[in-house]
Design brief:
This protein has 351 residues and is α/β, with parallel strands linked by helices. The protein has 11 helices and 16 strands.
């Protein structure tokens, strides 16, 4: 097994996800003609019967920890939970996955983070989030001992004041000799962009979606920067064609790589993903699956790509492995049950 002797640490959020599935006739979906947004409409003041209400463990750090443990990594998870039943549920599920829970911090004042997902017929949930204890990671809780012996450190999105710890986390992880991957969220990129740019000096892999990439490009590139002379212009996928809010994707990848990362991974939903290095950009289509729930698909994609990149797999193998795991998660009703083992992914790669 390629991963069985490797050690991984994930850092980020942990939540209890409550998923309510609403029948088609009880909810309306409205799509804007002049924008890409869609909206779910629920009748005010009405009690709505739903087909199911399910509770499961979620959050970026737990999603990535379970993904890595299923692949075979010896995995630990640095998260903050409340001293409550929800926190105990998260710990119990991680232990079932043989994940080291000794690094969990129990907050005596704030509750465990929770998310309520309203699932409609399109299976792309609207999510209400109370981040709770996730927001209060501090420098004193990020020490060199955390990273000792780690082969891979995966930093999921950091909430609230926890975002201020990013540079400290990735610097210590890099000093410990780990492959360092980070997957910041849109709020982090909006309000803590300067910190993220500073942290990139210690990052091997930056993973973001197209909306997040556009937000970061606003800070890194002037609008309308000329297309690099060596950029390919034949049958281009969407982001190579339209760019990131007037900034060329190739220029964005080049600038991010100049700041530190070896790989820039940009996902674009149902279209697919772009993996860029200083040598160019590879695109891989998303593939198709029956959608059960899109939540957690991005975490599984970024984490799986990071795992294979950490053992120096070629970019195409990383993209194929990540796609296989994300498609399996999309077909599942929650963020964990669809995550694949290394053997299952290898079988997909050999098909």
């Amino acid at each position: 097994m390629a991963f069985s002797k490797l050690k991984a640490l994930t850092i980020g959020s942990a939540t209890i996800d409550v998923i309510a599935s609403v029948e088609d006739q009880d909810i309306e979906r409205m799509t804007m003609h002049n924008a890409t947004s869609s909206f779910l409409l629920l009748e005010e003041g009405r009690k709505i019967d739903v087909s199911s209400i399910k509770s499961s463990v979620g959050g970026g750090a737990t999603n990535s920890a379970v993904a890595l443990a299923r692949l075979g990594f010896n995995t630990a998870c640095r998260i903050r939970t409340g001293a409550d039943m929800e926190g105990e549920k998260i710990k119990a599920e991680l232990e079932l996955e043989k994940i080291d829970t000794s690094l969990i911090i129990r907050d005596e004042t704030k509750p465990t983070g929770q998310a309520i997902m309203v699932m409609s017929h399109v299976r792309n949930p609207t999510i209400f989030t109370n981040r709770g204890a996730n927001t209060d990671l501090c420098d004193a809780e990020v020490t060199p001992e955390l990273f000792k012996g780690c082969d891979l450190v995966y930093v999921a999105s950091l909430s609230g004041n926890s975002a201020a710890c990013l540079t400290r986390i990735v610097r210590m992880a890099k000093e410990a000799g780990a492959f360092v991957a980070t997957n910041p969220g849109i709020r982090q990129l909006t309000y803590w962009a300067g910190d993220i740019i500073e942290a990139l000096a210690f990052v091997d892999l930056l993973s973001i979606n197209a909306v997040e990439a556009e937000q970061l490009a606003l800070r890194l590139l002037p609008k309308g920067q000329p297309q690099p002379a060596d950029a390919e212009v034949v049958d281009e996928p969407i982001l190579l064609k339209k760019g990131l809010g007037g900034r060329y994707l190739a220029s964005f990848v080049s600038e991010v790589c100049r700041l530190g990362p070896k790989i820039v991974l940009v996902t674009n939903g149902a279209e697919g993903a772009y993996a860029g290095t200083s040598e160019g950009i590879q695109f891989h289509p998303a593939g198709k699956a029956e959608v059960g729930n899109t939540a957690g698909a991005g975490d599984s994609f970024a984490t799986t790509f990071s795992a294979y990149a950490s053992i120096n797999a070629d970019i195409l193998t990383c993209l194929k492995a990540a796609t296989a795991n994300a498609l399996s998660v999309i077909a599942a009703p929650d963020t964990h049950s669809g995550l694949l083992s290394e053997a299952a992914i290898d079988a997909e790669l050999n098909n």
